């Protein structure tokens, strides 16, 4: 009896086991195929984190977001704002914004960033699901000790919004910023100092140690009793040479410092304290870089006998000033190779270069910017090619006791003036050109237009 009961119980248990694994789903009204479909559907609907990256002009742009912020199969799209008109609009808007902070835009990189769904439609993040971070990496501009900021615009004509949650990692040459929507992002290199392009600014390479008198004009040479101080001793340190007793300055690391020189002078019988300040920009040693996607520059040589070579084609990216600014007192030769039409540097790309002598301009060049060679007083003879269609004001202007005489052969159709735009100073520069003043061109036009043809009766 006991054995029969056990056998019956075992049979019932086995039957229940088979029923549970095979027929239970059918008993609940679901087939095995339907069950598998439900599981697969749940997996497809599960939220996943988003990550995408693209490299544009050597800068790695990446976007990462928490799970659920973007649907699965979303993809990143990054492109550079290439339309010159739109780029100019954006930069003007950013410059206006920076003026409110007494800051100046030096350089900008404008990216149109978007995230697309599986059908290619643009998406905006679901901010309730989590955060979105945009990163910019391989930023060689960080090596110049400049301040970085990121602005966001919905379109080129819109008001820029300065993003506040920005993290800069100098060692990794990386900037990371939080955002809540996508469109135009402006990575901006800015400067908060006063105008550095005047002769009161000094460029040094990290590790350099120089006699202060090497920087100063004759009237400002150091004499006993003058006080010299640096507002950032960790960047530029003032010290006295124990042997010569000269005042020296040493560049310790990248960045910017202000030297203040105080001197007491006699004015109308009274002692007056005279104060002058010089901005010192310290830059890491480097051998070159890019002016744009299709243009690069390189520095070669050493000491005050360096050669700057610019090669590529077309136009460089718009920027306020030259990236070789800290080397301006060391460059002796400038070579711009064939193919280059314009540098994109708005102001004084080769200005205030006290040792610059020889310049080669290509037959493809179209633009010479404002103050292009201003106060490069040792500049020798040069030829402006016929291809040039625009020459900025004071492009070749010289003055001062150290200015040497040179001759410019102008083959372009632009008339070089020693008044008005003041392209050059006739005291130091002789210009040979076939182009005529606008007044003369107009006069010729009037003479031609005044000719009338009459038929004389026979």
How would you characterize this protein structure?
The structure is a single chain. The protein has 4 helices and 30 strands. It has 458 residues and is of the alpha+beta class. The chain folds into 3 domains: 53-191, no CATH class; 201-283, Immunoglobulin-like (Sandwich); 288-442, no CATH class. β1 (50-56) and β2 (59-65) form a beta hairpin. The longest helix is centred in the N-terminal third of the chain and has 26 residues, at 2-27.
Through-space gap between termini: 153 Å
Radius of gyration: 34 Å
**What characteristic shape results from the CA principal axes?**
globular
Low-confidence stretches: 12-28, 194-199, 218-223, 440-454
Helix content: 10-25%
What's the average pLDDT?
80
What's the number of domains?
A: 3
Strand content: 35-45%
**Treating each run of at least 4 consecutive H or I residues as one helix, how many helices?**
4
Which quaternary structure do these chains form?
Answer: single chain
Question: What profile does the largest beta sheet have?
Answer: 6 strands, antiparallel
Query: How many strands appear in the DSSP assignment?
Result: 30
The secondary-structure class comes to alpha+beta
Pfam family, one: LRR_5
Keywords: Signal
Protein name: Leucine-rich repeat protein
Organism: Oribacterium parvum
């Amino acid at each position: 009896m006991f054995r029969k009961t056990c056998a019956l119980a075992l049979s019932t248990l086995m039957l229940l086991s088979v029923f549970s694994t095979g027929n239970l789903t059918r008993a609940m009204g679901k087939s095995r195929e339907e069950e598998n479909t439900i599981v697969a559907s749940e997996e497809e609907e599960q939220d996943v984190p988003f990550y995408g990256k693209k490299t544009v002009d050597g800068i790695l742009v990446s976007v990462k977001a928490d799970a659920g912020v973007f649907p699965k199969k979303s993809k990143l799209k990054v492109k550079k704002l290439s339309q010159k008109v739109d780029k100019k609009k954006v930069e003007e808007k950013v410059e206006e914004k920076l003026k409110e902070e007494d800051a100046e835009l030096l350089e900008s990189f404008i990216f149109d960033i978007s995230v697309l769904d599986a059908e290619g439609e643009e998406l905006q993040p679901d901010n309730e699901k989590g955060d979105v971070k945009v990163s910019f990496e391989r930023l060689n501009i960080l090596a110049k000790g400049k301040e970085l900021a990121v602005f966001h615009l919905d379109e080129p004509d819109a008001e820029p919004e300065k993003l506040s949650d920005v993290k800069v990692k100098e060692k990794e040459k990386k900037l990371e910023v939080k955002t809540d929507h996508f469109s135009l992002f402006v990575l901006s290199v800015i400067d908060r100092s006063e105008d550095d392009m005047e002769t009161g600014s000094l460029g040094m390479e990290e590790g350099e140690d120089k006699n202060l008198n090497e920087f100063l004009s004759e009237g400002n040479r150091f004499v006993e009793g003058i006080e010299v101080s640096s507002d950032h001793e960790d960047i530029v340190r003032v010290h006295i040479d124990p042997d010569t007793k000269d005042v020296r300055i040493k560049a310790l690391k990248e960045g910017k410092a202000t030297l203040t020189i105080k001197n007491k002078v006699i004015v109308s019988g009274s002692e007056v304290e005279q104060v002058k300040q010089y901005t010192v920009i310290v830059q890491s040693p480097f051998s070159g870089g890019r002016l744009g996607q299709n243009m690069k520059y390189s520095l070669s040589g050493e000491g005050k006998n360096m050669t700057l070579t610019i090669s590529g084609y077309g136009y460089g990216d718009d920027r306020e000033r030259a990236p070789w600014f800290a080397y301006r007192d060391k460059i002796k030769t400038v070579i711009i190779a064939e193919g280059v039409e314009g540098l994109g540097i708005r102001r004084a790309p080769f200005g205030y270069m006290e040792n610059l002598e020889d310049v080669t301009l290509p037959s493809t060049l179209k633009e010479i910017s404002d103050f292009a060679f201003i106060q490069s007083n040792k500049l020798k003879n040069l030829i402006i090619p016929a291809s040039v269609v625009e020459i900025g004001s004071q492009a070749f202007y010289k003055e001062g006791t150290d200015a040497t005489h040179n001759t410019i052969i102008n083959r372009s159709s632009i008339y070089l003036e020693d008044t008005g735009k003041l392209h050059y100073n006739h005291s130091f520069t002789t210009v040979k050109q076939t182009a005529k003043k606008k007044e003369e061109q107009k006069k010729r036009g009037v003479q031609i237009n005044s000719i009338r043809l009459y038929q004389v009766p026979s």
